[in-house]
């Protein structure tokens, strides 16, 4: 199973100076990581609410369908 990076958002940890990207780990779920400060956090894992994926898609500038397809490995 691979890892896929999708979407972009400003990082709140370093004052918006860095760019956070969603990283899809098809085994463990979704986390985000900043390219500047390196801050990362788990965003979603299997069994969590699917509604939260809609929020993540909007925040990271991708469609819900794109996010679901990335998680499913399509």
What does this protein structure show overall?
This protein is α+β, with helices and mostly antiparallel strands and 74 residues long. The protein has one domain (3-72). The chain is built from two helices and four strands. The longest helix is centred in the C-terminal third of the chain and has 9 residues, at 51-59. It starts with a strand and ends with a helix. The model has no long low-confidence stretch (mean pLDDT 92).
Query: Major β-sheet, in short?
Result: 4 strands, antiparallel
Helix and strand succession?
A: EEEEHH
How much is the radius of gyration in Å? 12 Å
- Total tally of structural domains: 1
- SSE class: alpha+beta
Taken from the alpha-carbon principal axes, the silhouette is: globular
Ranges where pLDDT stays below 50 over 5 or more residues in a row are none
- Beta percentage is 35-45%
Mean pLDDT: 92
Helix content: 10-25%
Distance between the termini: 12 Å
Number of strand elements:
4
Strand order of the largest sheet: 1-2-3-4
Count of DSSP-assigned helices: 2
């Amino acid at each position: 199973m691979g890892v896929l990076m999708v979407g972009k958002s400003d990082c709140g940890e370093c004052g918006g100076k860095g760019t956070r990207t969603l990283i899809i780990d098809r085994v463990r779920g979704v986390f985000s990581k900043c390219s500047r400060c390196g801050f990362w956090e788990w965003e979603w894992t299997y069994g969590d609410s699917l509604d939260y994926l809609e929020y993540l898609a909007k925040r990271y500038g991708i469609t819900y369908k794109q996010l679901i397809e990335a998680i499913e490995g399509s």
